[in-house]
Amino acid sequence: MYKPVFFEGNSDEKSNVNMFDPNLYLLNITTITGDKINFLVTELVQFNVYFVCLTEIGVKSDVIETINIPNYKLASYYCRPSLKCGGVGIWARSDLNCDEIDIKHFCTEKDIELSAVSCKIDQKMYIIVNCYRSPSGNVSVFFENISNVLELIYKPNVTLMVCGDFNFDPTNNRNNFNTLSNIVSTYNLKPVVEWSTRITETSSTIIDQIFTNGVDHTTCVIDNYFSDHRTILYQFLAANEIEEQVTYFRSFSESNISNFENGLWSENWDPLYKINDLNEAFQYLYCTFMYHFQNNFPCRRHNSRGDSKKWVNDVIKKSSAELKDLFILSRSFQNLLPLYQRKKHEHRELVQKTKKKFFQDRITNTSNQVKEAWKVISEIGNKKVETTHLKIKNGSDIVEEPNLIASLFNDFFIQASLDLKHKINVAPLEFRVTHFNNNKTFFLKPYCEQELLNLLLVKLKNKRSSGPDEIPCFIIKRVWKYLINCLLLYENANLWL
Q: What share of the chain is helix, strand, coil (3-state, %, to 5)?
């Protein structure tokens, strides 16, 4: 696990930072850009974060939906419709099933900007609210609306986390912070961040905060080099509750294929030729084939965490750590500021070149370059399939419910076929029997080896994708010479049934 350069957190965690595995990442990103997304990805790849909560994203709705954070999906957001800057967004890990909570009617530009999601993890329900309040916003409106939001979404048995940039510092803005604390405390929510989240030459404030009713949690604050706010990492799941993203795969390497061929070649197929029942013969052939298939291409468990960020290599991680060190040192030693700026420029170029080379190699080293290119474009552009909201008119009523629309269509076509049946006048049919004198019989010649081989090599495609049996077509084509006699026997036996 990556050890942050500058860490402030629970005392028991300071002695064992490597065991810290946060589930929530909170940051005021001060306008999200392409470079900041790349820098953000280099941070996220270090952790098993479930939710990424960003405040002051500074983009409009049409832009935020195109932002692609690999391995995450945009779960909820609010963008200012007219004013610049501001806005909030919650990105959830792609494998999580999250529901957006509609609280946008409580949002007012500058005064209170909110997004919220609910998610069930390990049979427990969690609600996350991300909030931003501008320093120039109306405080009274904020307090009133945050109270209404909590009243709407609060449930006693649900872990609730209200996080964001509230711009209330416990020291410099004690009255407003205490008012907010009193409001959330009525729902058993308590602040968990005790360390400065924004440090300047003249001030050190805790304006980013997480309020929660969770009991077992760990919080830390780390520096980053792409925002004037510090990052808050929050762990609300115990280590044994964390669900890993798991996928399963088979390795069709050349060595495995060679071992598979050797296994089929050395197999004794004599018992197959002695079986008279075709079903038994097929089962014997299939089970023998699958025995060698499973033995040489076992289904392996793979933790896919961070797979979509493979371009974040060790060189980028090292450069990122060095840049973070320089950022911290430049706060105390102003003469290092030009060095930090130069290093930041070099790091930006390194990220761009590495990412470009990664995707170029990915396209070049594939058998279907066009398909892979479109796949890369879709990933980078964060393309989504847009769903159309259907409406139909049923008499004088407008129907919008999808299930009801489907039922209306089904009923219409069922009734239409019945109506059509009654309209057709069926005339009585006359049958005539004609006898033909033909002594020839209907006879299918058995397959020869070349005919069956042509079917295998021509009809089967060279694709690595597989169906429910998990056997790719190209594997069959690779081992045809070891199976051709068995298949020939089975196919010809079918012709004689």
A: 45, 20, 40
What amino acid is encoded at 116 in this protein? A
Nearest to 487 by CA among 458, 445, 447: 447
User: Which residue(s) pair with 231 in the sheet?
Assistant: 222
Q: Is the pLDDT at 135 greater than 50, yes or no?
A: yes
d(CA 375, CA 416): 43
The DSSP letter of residue 329 is H
Q: How far is CA 462 from the centre of its chain?
A: 29
**Phi, psi at 179, each rounded to 5°:** -65, -45
Q: Which residue has the tokens 């048995």?
A: 157
Judging by beta carbons within 10 Å of its beta carbon (0-12, 13-18, 19+), is residue 4 exposed, middle or buried? buried
Q: Take residue 461 and report the two structure tokens written for it.
A: 């495609």
**What tokens appear for 49 in the block?**
């974060």
Contact 453/481 with Cβ under 8 angstroms?
no
CA distance linking residue 398 with residue 393, whole number of Å: 5
Q: How many CB atoms lie within 10 A of CB 397?
A: 8
Separation CA 114–CA 443 (nearest Å)? 76
Summarize pLDDT for 153-211 with one digit per residue, the tens. 998 889 999 999 999 999 888 899 999 999 999 999 999 999 999 998 888 999 999 99
CA dihedral (330, 336, 338, 344) in degrees, to 10, reads -50
Burial 239-263 (b: 16+ CB within 10 A, else e): eeeeeebeeeebebeeebbeebbeb
Greatest Cα pair distance, the chain, in angstroms, is: 110
pLDDT at 50: 93
Instruction: Check pLDDT > 90 for residue 48.
Output: no
Residue by residue, DSSP assigns 88-127 as EEEEEETTS-EEE---GGG-BTTTBEEEEEEEEETTEEEE
12-32 average pLDDT score: 73
Residues forming a β-bridge with 7: 222
> Tokens at residue 416, please?
């239409």
**How far is the C-alpha of 358 from the C-alpha of 468, rounded, in Å?**
32
Distance CA 12, CA 6 (A): 16
Strands 24-28 and 51-55, by their bridges, are parallel
Q: What is the pTM of this model?
A: 0.65
* Angle (nearest 5°) at CA 46 between 24 and 73: 50
CA distance 121 to 235: 14
* Contacting residues for 49 by C-beta, under 8 A, at least 6 apart: 22, 23, 24, 25, 93, 233
Q: What is the pLDDT of residues 411-450, one digit of tens each?
A: 888 888 888 877 777 666 666 666 666 666 666 677 787 8
CA distance 98 to 109: 26
